[in-house]
């Protein structure tokens, strides 16, 4: 039996769940109200079942496969946060702040935008941020190659990381690291790591600093690798001066 057929035969039902303190909640698709209460408590109420409100929503069963459109819930009086501009989306705020209606809202309950223009702008910015981060990682790989030109660093065998905060324009890099192999490596790769010295949460303070790191078990091997490389460069420079 295919996964889609199994889902159809199970016939999950729509339930509206809400925790009792701040009124947070959502629409869950479960087989029973008990399962909806348990899952809702896990998501919205720190696993506490007491006080969880569960309401059967037969009118939303048709959205089991796709999820409930956010516009439907906004039209019922719900509020959500736009993943693009960050505004609190309600019928009143849409009208007052952007001259929009509830049916202009796009997306679903956990991925919602106030309108198509906001969604497109957000997706374009995210794509540009990814391109910027990938280019920065390429630059860091080139730095490793230039620091150790006589060694073939294998980058593709390892995972690399870059963090480009979304709130900064123009883009800046908050953290980045590229891992690479080196002769004598036994426990794990070395890495070139960049981070802001004064980074705290999403705020970036102070200059960015790039350092080489390695596993503690490979420290002697990496230090020996660096010394051998410096020695080789010095010998090359002395040879070049002698030939002149």
Structure description:
- This protein is α+β, with helices and mostly antiparallel strands.
- It is 37% helix and 20% strand.
- It has helices spanning 3-10, 33-44, 70-75, 91-98, 116-147, 219-243, and strands spanning 13-18, 25-30, 53-56, 80-81, 88-89, 106-108, 111-113, 161-163, 175-180, 190-196, 208-213.
- A 4-stranded antiparallel sheet has the order 8-9-10-11, covered by helices on one side. Strands 2-1-3 form a 3-stranded antiparallel sheet, covered by helices on one side. It has a two-stranded antiparallel ribbon with strand order 4-5.
Features:
alpha+beta, single chain, four-stranded antiparallel sheet, 6 helices, 244 residues, disordered N terminus
- Globally, the shape reads elongated
**Helix coverage percent:** 25-40%
Which whole number gives the mean pLDDT? 85
Separation, N- and C-terminal Cα atoms: 78 Å
Please mark out the parts with pLDDT under 50 across 5 or more consecutive residues, or reply none: 1-9
Tell me about the largest β-sheet. 4 strands, antiparallel
Strand order of the largest sheet: 8-9-10-11
Q: List the helices and strands in order.
A: HEEHEHEEHEEHEEEEH
Strand content: 15-25%
What is the tally of helical segments?
6
Helical/strand content category:
alpha+beta
> What does the radius of gyration come to?
27 Å
Number of strands: 11
């Amino acid at each position: 039996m295919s996964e889609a057929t199994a889902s159809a035969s199970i016939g999950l039902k729509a339930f509206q769940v809400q925790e009792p303190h701040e009124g947070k909640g959502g629409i869950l698709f479960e087989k029973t109200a008990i399962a909806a209460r348990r899952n809702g408590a896990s998501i919205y109420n720190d696993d506490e079942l007491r006080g969880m409100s569960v309401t059967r929503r037969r009118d939303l069963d048709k959205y089991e496969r796709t999820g409930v459109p956010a516009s439907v819930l906004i039209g019922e009086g719900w509020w959500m946060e736009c993943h693009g501009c960050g505004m609190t989306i309600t019928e009143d705020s849409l009208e007052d702040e952007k001259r929009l209606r509830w049916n202009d809202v796009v997306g679903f309950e956990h991925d919602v935008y106030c309108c198509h223009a906001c969604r497109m702008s957000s997706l374009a910015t995210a794509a540009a941020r990814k391109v910027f981060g990938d280019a920065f990682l390429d630059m860091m790989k080139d730095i490793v190659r230039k620091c150790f030109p006589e060694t073939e660093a294998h980058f593709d065998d390892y995972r690399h990381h870059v963090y480009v905060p979304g709130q900064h324009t123009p883009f800046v890099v908050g953290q980045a690291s590229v891992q690479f192999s080196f002769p004598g490596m036994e426990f794990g790769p070395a890495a070139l790591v960049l981070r802001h010295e004064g980074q705290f949460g999403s705020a970036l303070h102070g200059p960015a600093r790039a350092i080489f790191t390695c596993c503690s078990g490979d420290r002697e091997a990496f230090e020996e690798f660096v010394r051998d490389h410096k020695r080789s460069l010095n010998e090359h420079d002395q040879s070049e001066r002698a030939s002149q």
